[in-house]
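Sync notes, pocket subgroup
Present: LS, DG
LS reminded everyone that the earlier model was apo-only. Rerun requested with D-4-phosphoerythronic acid included. Inputs:
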Amino acid sequence: ALKQAVAAAAIEEIRPHLDRRTILGVGSGSTVNCFIAALAPLVGEFAGAVASSEESAQQLRALGIEVIDLNSAGTLPLYIDGADEIDHDFAMIKGGGAALTREKIVAACSARFICIADSSKYVAQLGGFPLPVEVIPMARSWVSREMVRMGFSPVYRQGVVTDNGNQLIDLHDRMLDNPRELETAINQIPGVVTNGIFAHRGADLLLLGGDNRVERLSP
Ligand code: DER
């Protein structure tokens, strides 16, 4: 019910901005799945969507929404996605659903990032949720050793291969005191494809599902 309420709030938020040429950016995860379902009545009122995962793409196609290749779309006006954690500056940890690389790309191409989440995700400091890092398979142990040097406890996400054919390590046991700095530092390590800190490009609006209402928050 919470996810449905947040999804409905997102529909209300984006509706005035839709026209037949609009291409939406759509993220991944269970909250986004509710948002996609809530798009059903709007099919035909916008051009289509760029999806940040195969799972979301399949859901969109099932509703008759055209899934558009990012290379065919310019800047997207709106990106709607969830988060594993979001702080008060609207920096996020994402990647719980293994889609962080395409999510970060589509978010980067979008003018406005609307984050939809339940209140448990809203935290004072990021790091309670293990930080996902997508790595080239051959580099997994090397990157893990570098992560230990940075004070993390890396855990290989066994049996998961991302849409890009890469592997994931989840970084435990360290809070993120400076998300922007850490996002840059982790990106410097050879073998890292993407890390799940979304600080350089955070959210612009947060629709936060509480007990019996949805709060609309700006950073
Ligand atoms: O993996 C992701 O980044 C997802 O957006 C995730 O963070 C949110 O998934 P949820 O809506 O299922 O909690």
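DG: Residues 2-14 form the longest helix (13 residues).
LS: The CA atoms of residues 50 and 69 lie 6 Å apart.
Action: DG to write up.
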